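Support case: NAP complex. Customer-provided input:
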Amino acid sequence: MKSEMSRIVLGTDWMIAVPNLASWNIVPTKRADAILNGAVEMGINSFDTARIYRSEGVVGRFVRKHPLGRGAFRIISKGGHPSLFWRTPLTRGKLLRQLDDSLRALGTDYIDVYLLHYDDPKVPAQAIAEWSVELLRSGKVHNIGYSNVSLARLKEFRAYLREANVSPWVSNEFNALPVKDGERWKGAQNISRDGTYVDYLREDGLPFLAYSPLGRGGLKKYIDHRLAERKLEDERRISRLISLGQKYSVPLSVIALNYILQTAPNFHAVVGTSRLDHLKENMRALTFQMSEGDRNGLAFSSCSY
Ligand SMILES: NC(=O)c1ccc[n+]([C@@H]2O[C@H](COP(=O)([O-])OP(=O)(O)OC[C@H]3O[C@@H](n4cnc5c(N)ncnc54)[C@H](OP(=O)(O)O)[C@@H]3O)[C@@H](O)[C@H]2O)c1
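Agent response - structure generated as follows:
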């Protein structure tokens, strides 16, 4: 499975399905369709969606209609996102219900990689691991995994999953950019500066989906608009990114993505873009390679590589 998922995965959280009032069908915007088609032409076979994104309808419709057929694509979806307005605990029933809702929205009978969108640390790890195995056994998902999960909890999940001979996928934020301290959303995991976590994923070869690899577009924002706000460490990081871009004559997005892809062969970058020219630019990260020294120079100081 690892080798079947493209190293660059297309993020779809912006592809919100628009209801067509004439037919009461959900239709993708033209732009979403253009990006999905362009992505496939450029060699991307994998799409990242989630119950909460409301893009499952768009992705599912695209895959169903595509002449290559369902088997040519890898769909990642996620359930169990905490409620946006009030905190209800994660339960088995909620997860099973959301999975069925996702399958219906996607119009498919299986999901390639199904992730728990956010961990709920109040629920014992054993229970979540057991639900994960139950999902796998149902055949409705081919792989399970965890997004926004701490390293301690991931280790706990793995201890229970090992008994069932199951290896999980993992998805957290990871990028080479200056990151603001603190959580972006409550419970979100940004492991960019957490060398112990990154080393653990590398050494154990767990398939890892790095989301927001361009800092949600923050790379350009930092360079263009935030000059006054930056700390000295951020200044050095941005200068290094700029000089690497100049040295290799590639856009900064290519440096940022290559940093992730070069971290380990089991690392994938989940990129969001609504522009074909940006997507084309991003794909250059697959064929371009920084020297090992340059790549390691971008790693945060806690990382051992
Ligand atoms: N598991 C989770 O909890 C979680 C959380 C967040 C995101 N995600 C997934 O990760 C995907 C990507 O994350 P993201 O959207 O937060 O961050 P991202 O991919 O780091 O950044 C997306 C932004 O970068 C811009 N961009 C893309 N390529 C560019 C290029 N070559 N040059 C300049 N700008 C470029 C895009 O603008 P344009 O549209 O103009 O290209 C967009 O504004 C999401 O779509 C979602 O599927 C998962």
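The chain has eleven helices and ten strands.

Case will auto-close in a few days if no follow-up is received.
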